[in-house]
Design goal:
The protein is of the alpha/beta class. It has two domains: about 280 residues, Aldehyde Dehydrogenase, Chain A, domain 1 (3-Layer(aba) Sandwich); about 180 residues, Aldehyde Dehydrogenase, Chain A, domain 2 (3-Layer(aba) Sandwich), CATH 3.40.309. A hairpin with a 2-residue loop joins β17 and β18. α3 crosses α4 and α4 packs across α13. The longest helix has 26 residues. GO terms for molecular function: glyceraldehyde-3-phosphate dehydrogenase (NADP+) (non-phosphorylating) activity; lactaldehyde dehydrogenase (NAD+) activity.
Length: about 500
């Protein structure tokens, strides 16, 4: 069971502690925050509500230990990350159990997330050694008008303290995607998991604790994001902010100064289907892209833009596949599991009602039990419906019929989001031209949008984010260039 055995020290009775200075602690606030199981809608876990005083102590410790960590040889940093990855994969079952109970992640997907996270940490260790171990050498006479009187050496050095908030839907994988790059680059990190997903993250952090990192280098604080997040993103001890689903914040991170930002803020993935597309391939990918992980992915397909001439044939194929999706609790490994909260389910229901009242065709009967919403395909969605533009983050997919490629591109580009999109066609020339025209961070050709492999760049435009993620990009973002210039004697200087 989660919280027992090797993880016993992170619990005090039925309360999970927070992690600071290499120790698991109870908050002096004596206040806990409940985590509700999306399936049972009953309290599953309780975590500490850290105080601002405790956060200040965390920041002081993180700043202090980072200086010595930055001097630790790269190979030693990598060695510890490899050790943490091995421990994480060793204890995948306990962490996966938490994902099932607090996020309603299907059991098979929970196991995959933990193992994938271990692989990410190991890859990051190796990639970091390659990136950070290679400096640059420049000579002055490569620029017009200069003699060879200067040698320039550049290297990458850490930023300092990274403050990271992963999203609730992938609380382990998207946490280590911030932790590992920060640590290999020589930074310390303060992690604030979302409340829903906090226990999974605490278990993951304990694996780093067991690996033997210096005390204070990694901290994991818990409590309401609105209270802790708004406090820390303005904290002058923070040198970089990396977070997802950032609409929960009321403060501007750069109120603390000009610091690098890395933000993943959601999407409205558009899928453009041309008349020459392989409809069986499209249907399979629409099901995978729109309904896997219950549609709770920023990269999920959320609107399908289909040429009118093939719309009926494709919709029928998709309806047949929707009917085969299994629905139920995550413990049963169902395809569709409860969404994360009652408020999320209510929001999705409001979008469906709005679409139905405005003329959309419901291809299945709308069904809901608590937080569990049955998969639903909405046909004949129009521009004036909320669901054409808003992100449902659940098992609901919209179909908009179009009469030209330009119409599909225009809809995609009119969205406030621009994370990922996809195009289905057998004409690679058209695919490239459409990709160039779509205002999204990534365009997939003949496949559903997805995050990964984890070393691929991952970024959005418009309201979908700032900065680029992926292992390599994150390492580069969490470092800065340091230059040392060696001044040589003038060319007239003679030796001897």
């Amino acid at each position: 069971m989660a919280g027992t055995g090797v993880f016993a020290e992170i619990l005090d009775g039925d309360e999970y502690k927070y992690y600071s200075d290499g120790e698991w602690k109870k908050s002096s606030s004596s206040i806990t925050v409940s985590i509700i199981n999306p399936t049972t809608r009953e309290e599953q876990y309780k975590v500490q509500a850290c105080t601002h005083e405790e956060l200040n102590k965390v920041m002081i410790s993180a700043k202090s230990v980072q200086k010595s960590w930055a001097k630790t040889p790269l190979w030693k940093r990598a060695e510890l990350l490899h050790k943490a990855a091995a421990i994480l994969k060793q204890h995948w079952a306990s962490i996966a159990e938490c994902l099932v109970k607090e996020i309603a992640t299907p059991a098979k997907d929970a196991a995959t997330e933990v193992v994938r996270s271990g692989d990410l940490v190991s890859y990051c260790a190796e990639e970091g050694v390659r990136i950070l171990g290679a400096g640059k050498f420049l000579v002055s006479d490569s620029f017009p008008g200069h003699e060879r009187t200067k040698y320039c050496l550049t290297s990458k050095i850490p930023l300092g303290v990274i403050f990271a908030i992963p999203p609730f839907n992938y609380p382990v994988n998207l946490a280590v995607s911030k932790i590992a790059p920060a640590l290999i680059a020589g930074n310390s990190i303060v992690l604030k998991p979302r409340t829903q997903g906090a226990v999974s993250a605490l278990h993951m952090v304990h694996c780093f604790h067991l690996a033997g990192f210096p005390k204070g280098l990694i901290s994991c604080i818990t409590g309401r994001t609105s209270r802790i997040g708004d406090f820390l993103i303005k904290h002058r001890g923070v040198n970089c902010v990396s977070f997802a689903r950032g609409d929960a914040f009321n403060s501007n991170p750069n109120e603390a100064g000009l610091i690098p930002l890395q933000m993943d803020l959601g999407g409205k993935g558009a899928c453009i289907v041309l008349e020459d597309a392989d409809l069986d391939l499209v249907a399979s990918n629409i099901i995978k892209g729109g309904f896997s992980y219950c549609g709770r992915r920023g990269t999920a397909v959320k609107v399908v833009l289909i040429m009118e001439s093939i719309a009926d044939a494709l919709v029928e194929r998709v309806k047949e596949k929707v009917a085969k999706l299994t629905v139920g609790p995550p413990e049963n490994d169902c395809d569709i599991t409860p969404v994360v909260s009652e408020s999320s389910a209510n929001f999705i229901e409001d979008l469906i009602i709005d679409a139905r009242e405005k003329g959309a065709t419901l291809c299945q009967e709308y069904r809901r039990e608590g937080n569990l919403i049955w998969p639903l395909l909405l046909d004949n969605v129009s521009q004036h419906m909320r669901i054409a533009w808003e992100e449902p983050f659940g098992p609901v997919l919209s179909v908009i019929r179009i009469n030209s490629v330009e119409e599909g591109i225009n809809h995609c580009n009119a969205s406030n989001f621009g994370l990922q999109g996809c195009v289905f066609t057998k004409d690679v020339n058209k695919a490239i031209l459409i990709s160039d025209a779509m205002e999204t961070g990534t365009v997939q050709i003949n496949s559903t949008p997805a995050c990964g492999p984890d070393h691929f760049p991952f970024q959005g435009i418009n309201n979908s984010g700032i900065g680029s993620q992926g292992i390599t990009n994150s390492i580069n973002m969490m470092t800065k260039v340091k230059t040392t210039v060696i001044n040589l004697p003038s060319p007239s200087y003679t030796m001897g």
